[in-house]
Here is the input.
Amino acid sequence: MRIKRQYGFGALCVLLATSGTVSAQQVSDDFDVTITLEDSCELTTAPTDLSFGTVGLLNTDHTATSTVAVTCTDGAAYDLVLNAGLHDDGTTRRMEQAGEHVSYRLYSDSGFTALWGNDTTFGSVVSATGTGEEAEFTVHGRVESADNASTPPGGTYSDTVTIEVSF
Here is the structure.
């Protein structure tokens, strides 16, 4: 019986020695973090007004510019479209005051060779590809003496053109 007691006592000592020690265990797993970006564009800065200022006769050309800013996702193809304005006659954009008109044209280049419009009567769209950063575009306007056979009565002539970004 003595032997049994020794094993019993030894087992009891081992049990008592390990019962105060708690073993920490860890379990881990992974999770995904995602976002889905779709091609997107926005006009990030309102276009500046295009003002030809105060002039006298329309016997010379008068020029002015407007700037518009666009931001599109990187790699997104887009077009900038200018509509005909409020007072066009089907072939020419016109500013109006009391039923009188001053004709003008809008261009995408400072050399006044590329008419800017909606791919119909008033010119081509401006196409670009987004970089993820803001891009500025300049609208070049010109009141051409050849389009205005005579100078109408004095006053403030105006029109409103809408710019649209399509992607």
